[in-house]
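Summary for the funding panel

The consortium committed to producing paired sequence-structure records for every protein in the target list. Below we show the first two records in order, beginning with the earlier of the two.
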Amino acid sequence: MAGEGESGVGHEQALLAFADAAVGATEQLAEARAAVLRDLGEAALLDAAAVIAGFDAITRVADGTGIPLVEAMAEATAAWRELVSL
């Protein structure tokens, strides 16, 4: 969850950079997207984008249904949630 890698997944640094840029809507998104396209190809780029979107959708469904965020997770993610809500 820290985004440091070492998972053994091929091209993990490019995929992590893409996920981080997409979730954070950062200025690096176009560059990260291009790196995944260049290094892994169009099909992998589409798969990665679908996974990122899926995680976002799951969170939105949970929020929409009123599922509460457990206190421990709220505390652990407070700084990150503040960052992405800017």
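The next record, for a separate protein in the list, is shown here:
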Amino acid sequence: MAFEGLTEKLSTTFKKLRGKGRLKESDIKEAMREVRLSLLEADVSYKVVKDFVAKVSERAIGSDVFESLTPAQTVIKIVNEELTALMGGETQKLKFASSSPTVIMLVGLQGAGKTTNGAKLAAYIKKNHGRRPLLVACDVYRPAAIKQLEVVGEQLGIPVFQQGQGNPVEIAKAALAHAKDHGNDVLLIDTAGRLHIDEALMDELRSIKEALNPTEIMLVVDAMTGQDAVNAAQAFNEELDIDGVMLTKLDGDARGGAAISVKAVTGKPIKFAGVGEKLDQIEPFHPDRMASRILGMGDIMTLIEKAEQSFDEKKAEELERKLRQNRFTLEDFLEQMDQLKNMGPIQDVIGMLPGVNAGALKGAVIDEKALPRVEAIILSMTKDERENPSILNSSRKRRIAKGSGTRVEDVNRLLKQFDMMRKMVKQMSSPQMGRKARRAARGGGAFPFM
């Protein structure tokens, strides 16, 4: 998970500050020294770290902090604000041309994930902006690059324009004409990459840029390459004057230094982040939310958005009616678990809650296998048993355990958790919802993955 190591180290540093009550200048200097070391270990550029710590120190060693009733919280607030500013401040959106089509040119080194993430971006634009994107295969050198683009395009329902291993500039021009004739209002040009930057690559990219005058040049960089990603971003920006960056494999980089450094080094914003291997795992990059995650303060807005995307509105309304009438069944429970799975790994979802350290959840708290186990148990029941669990006697439980590859104890545990949830729901749906129900809701004890 991105920033896992950095989050743990910063949390430890700020915990020491909170324990001191009133702060002295020496306390802040010691905290800033630990912040500097933490950022350097996270593979953040040395110059970026130096400038960042200087800005935070200048603000922190001031009257506002020492006169505050909560000086430690004020220091954390300053770090949060400066970290947000470092990563770009406000969320930067895609630019769309005033006259169709919009041309987005995807550039980057080989292996950064241009082809797959370009297709992800096309699907995102189609879903969230109501556009009709066209993917263009201009990587004519890498074996199977065109086929790869066609495969992911087909999986996502995005058309692909290709003319085999021809001239990339001519292919791009032909794609532009094709888009105008067929009503495609966004072109995403998948260009060739190299293992390293060379003049031949840059000449070709400059020619495509000159021929199409793209609305947006999006650099795709692999977050896991750390400072190499930042160096690549700097080189591409100097040659092509890029408009934005897409960070791929951000979920696989426990350090996250590239995300913090790239805006400061290039001056160009990170606009999107690839956060998983699935073709829908791409999201806009929000500097404020990312800063909040890094500091262990959660990310409620992204959590809400994931829930909105994953949960069916009609099913939610039907569920609400059932809850009000106390008709919540194991079938409904299974459906909720299924929709919860669509939100991504449970550890990542819970890690977005304020005050929850996702790294500390490893192994001890989260059981990722629990959801499939619950699903197997419920699917091994008859329809009558799901609707009315009270009919489950010992022989039925043994049959269900055998059918689901679990133990009778697992079946009993699920039934107990389900009963707890039903009681909690009944209390919460009543006009006189008491403290006990609120505590149960906050505690999460009724959920099988806790």
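Regarding this second record: DSSP finds 21 helices and eight strands in the chain. Residues 102-297 form a domain with the Rossmann fold fold (CATH 3.40.50.300).
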